[in-house]
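In response to reviewer comment 3 from the previous cycle, which asked for concrete evidence that the modeling workflow produces usable outputs, we include below a single protein chain processed end to end. The sequence was submitted unchanged, and the resulting C-alpha cells are shown without manual editing.
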Amino acid sequence: METPEARRKRMTMRSWRRGTKEMDLVLGPFADANLANMSEARLLIYDRMLDENDQDLLPWVLGQADAPEELADLIAEIGIFARNRLLGR
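The workflow returned the following C-alpha cells.
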C-alpha cells in the first residue's frame, strides 16, 4: 500500500514529467505549492486528472475547451494558479 508521503511524491513527479514542457511548467509548480495541503477528496481528483493526456489538459487549463465536469473545478484552480504565477502575482 502506498503511504501518503509516497503518493504525494509520485504525484509531484508525474506533475513535473508530463511529456510536454508546457504541462510540466503548469502542473509542476502547482503540485509543489498545493499537494501537501490538499484534502483526500481533492487528491483523488488530482490523481485522476494526471491520467489525462496533455493534449486534452492544456486546452482545458487555457480555457479553450471545457474540462470534464468531475475535473472542472480543479482545472479552473490550476488555470488561475498558472496565470497568477506567469503574471508574478
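The CA atoms of residues 14 and 20 lie 12 Å apart. We consider this sufficient to address the reviewer's concern, and the full set will be provided in the supplementary archive.
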